[in-house]
Amino acid sequence: KAAAAAKDAAAKAAAAKDTRKSTAPYDDGLGPPTDFKRILEISPQELMETEPEGPMGNGMRHVTGPVWVRAKRRAGDGQKHWDATYLLWRKEGKKFHLLRFEDCGSKGEYVPGGIEKELRSKKAVHLFMERMEDKRK
Question: How many CA atoms lie within 13 A of 103 on its CB side?
Fold first, then answer.
């Protein structure tokens, strides 16, 4: 009986530590609420220069929540402009899984059934994330 009680206690402790479970009524795969204002406040250039590369490689840098960015200087433009690609990554245990921007157009606008693999502007990502946060309420 003592072994069974210890096993139950260990299972409850493990479940309490599991932060992957969403408290939302459904699991949209985007994790906990996001500080989506940060998307507009920080430039891809700043992220590339200050943040470490993410575990998924490919030069990805973490912005906020599930949002990651990869950016590079535009060639032949005097190193003045940066081209950015924003992606959604969901962490499950030690692995990251690429998500899609669902019900979304290329500019972040609502498009029922639309699926985008990536978005190319901060404004587009902000629109999408703002809509997702509103949907959770």
Answer: 9
Task: Report the distance separating Cα 81 and Cα 75, nearest Å.
Answer: 9
In whole angstroms, give the CA distance from residue 74 to residue 81: 6
Cβ(98)–Cβ(116) below 8 Å: no
> Helix, strand or coil for residue 80?
coil
Average pLDDT of the chain is: 79
Task: Decide: 40 and 55 in contact? Cβ < 8 Å.
Answer: no
For 82-122, write each residue's pLDDT tens digit: 899 999 998 888 888 899 999 999 999 999 999 999 999 99
Structure tokens at 114: 């639309």
Q: How far is CA 105 from CA 59, 98, 111, 125, 127, in A?
A: 25, 18, 6, 11, 10
pTM of the full structure? 0.71
Q: What is the 3-state secondary structure (H, E, C) of 23-78?
A: CCCCCCCCCCCCCCHHHHHCCHHHHHHHCCCCCCCCCCEEEECCEEEEEEECCCCC
